[in-house]
Protein: NAD-dependent DNA ligase adenylation domain-containing protein
Amino acid sequence: MRGDPPVRRDRHHRRAGRLAHHPHTVPMQSLDKVNTPAELLAWEASLQRRLGGPVTGGYVVDVKLDGFAVAARYQRGRLVKLVGRGDGRQGEDWSHAIGTITGLPQ
Structure:
């Protein structure tokens, strides 16, 4: 992010409920932390229950970094909306931050 990003600048708007909310086109889930082999196996069992069968193709495991989760919506190759995770079903409209997130294609 650049010098004074909207995420920091607009915290008071978020707390005051001034950011509009938009539904996610696909529910946005939160990542779980796994710290031991037993927790990884428990997570895999829960995933298999939710999928109704075994996972095929393997897994990718990466470090979880806490931060700002946002869904980027593109139309005809252009970034048109940024929606924060919120409750996973709907989130805050952060579209005013388009152009301020380094590395996010516009």
